[in-house]
Amino acid sequence: MFRALTPIVKNLLLITVGMHVIASFFLPQLKNLFALYYIESRFFMPFQFVTYMFMHADFWHLFSNMFGLFIFGPLLEQFLGPKKILILWMVCGIGSGVMYSGYNAYKMGKLNNSIEAFTANPDPETFNRFVSQNRHMFNPSIYDFVDNYSRNPDDAEIQEQAKRAMLEIREGQANIPMVGASGALFGILIAFGMLFPNTQLFLLFPPMPVKAKYLVLFYGLYTVYNIFVSNPTDNVAHFAHLSGLMIGAVLVVYWKKDRRNFY
Q1: 129 burial type by CB count under 10 A (0-12 exposed, 13-18 middle, 19+ buried)
Q2: Residue (of 87, 95, 97, 102) closest to 34 by Cα position
Q3: Which sequence ranges are marked TM in the entry (predicted)?
Q4: What tens digit of pLDDT does each residue of 151-175 get?
């Protein structure tokens, strides 16, 4: 698998690593500017659907994505050609950002509905339910406030404090950025698994051989599992990973319809 780097893969590696170095050591403001935010966030800009792919949270986040591109990208570029490998990377990256934004808008809509329900009928039970659903974003001291509110359900000042707390959570949720090329990488993974399904890969952890199609299947099932479990403390954008898999699969199926288009 460690074959010579092909031109597009090499340039993607250089650009992404270079952007990480610049954002980490010279222009740290780039990470916030180029990250992808919720579309109604005051920090959102349309160009972030492209730029977020070239920002990473830390070295290990960068390493895992670039290592995957380094391993799977060259053979795909040799088979598909430079134009298609670039299309695959960019379309899966941008597409997963767009689809994740839609998923995020759905979650924010549920959050807004909870706040609107409380505003229309402020009561401790509704607020307590909101706190339980978003407990990972509250300070532990919120439970003292919940107890106080339960004992004083008609206190207008406490009701207003509860509403402000809910709006602060909404603001914080809206301004959580997404960075990384994982959506693009998952497009590469599904393409590799579909085009070279029986290629034997040797895993590092655990050290064992596995066919490409089974590795991709594992990643897909693991991603779906994490979406359904929806661990509130998990800061990985699993839906973006799944989106990259789906978009990559659609592209490969489309290209395979006419093999004359492979070059």
Answers
A1: middle
A2: 97
A3: 12-39, 59-76, 85-103, 184-205, 212-230, 236-255
A4: 999 999 999 999 999 999 999 999 9
